[in-house]
Fold this sequence. Notes:
The chain has two domains: 21-49, no CATH class; 58-151, no CATH class.
Amino acid sequence: MEKTDQTSQLSQACSYCGEAPVNHKLQYFENVVNTLFDSWMAVTLKYTPKAIKEIVDWVPVGLFNGLNALGLAHFSTDITKAHSFRSQVIWEEANRRGIVMEQVIVGKRPLEWYRARLPNKTIYFESIPIQSEFLDGGIDWDNKIILKKKL
């Protein structure tokens, strides 16, 4: 039953969503909130010390490793559980490059959170690993409409 619901949702996806559908009502609400707070956040982030930004980056690391230590979550290398086709493509490319990819599984539910193990560091990311220099540019690269226009 659940697979059928997911299939019907995919068939109703808009042209921007493709195989990575989102809840458009929730996305609209998020965009309204972002519009209200983006200019304030841009100024705040500009003057936020680098140390605080690094601490915030460690939140998912601590959360997922803590859940793993408590036995409430684990990391899976099973590419067939990739949350979307887009994530599977990123995972396949990581494998080709010799990068170990793991997906966060909470309980029995795979999340759209991943970690990539590189020789010198481990990167935690949601959906797509975006380089930090693109995150501070004031552009919402995760917004599919904006991304499509920019590309």
